[in-house]
């Protein structure tokens, strides 16, 4: 079967078009993956900030507890001295 010039050009264009669509599809899949990774990274960064804040508060509470223990004065109860 002999292909004329028009048929060969149309076939070549079809092959190039199919390859371009395949590359575009792969790009869209990778873009969706990158967007999911960006959301995950944002969530992890927020959690890391919360952990750092919690760690700082814990260190302050430990220092406060040690200071009260060394001073020999435990904190008063919420009801006051009459509740003892």
Can you describe this structure?
With 84 residues, this protein is mostly helical. It has a domain at 24-65. The protein is 80% helix and 0% strand. The chain contains one helix and no strands. It has one helix at 5-71.
Instruction: Profile the largest sheet.
Output: none
Beta-strand residue fraction: under 5%
Shape: rod-shaped
Task: Give the strand tally.
Answer: 0
Structural Rg:
34 Å
Oligomer: single chain
Pattern of helices and strands = H
Low-confidence stretches: none
How much helicity do the residues have?
over 70%
Number of helices, counting only DSSP H or I runs of 4 residues or more: 1
Mean residue pLDDT: 88
Q: What structural category characterises the helix and strand content?
A: mainly alpha
Kindly, what is the distance between the CA atoms of the first and last residues, rounded to a whole number of angstroms?
A: 106 Å
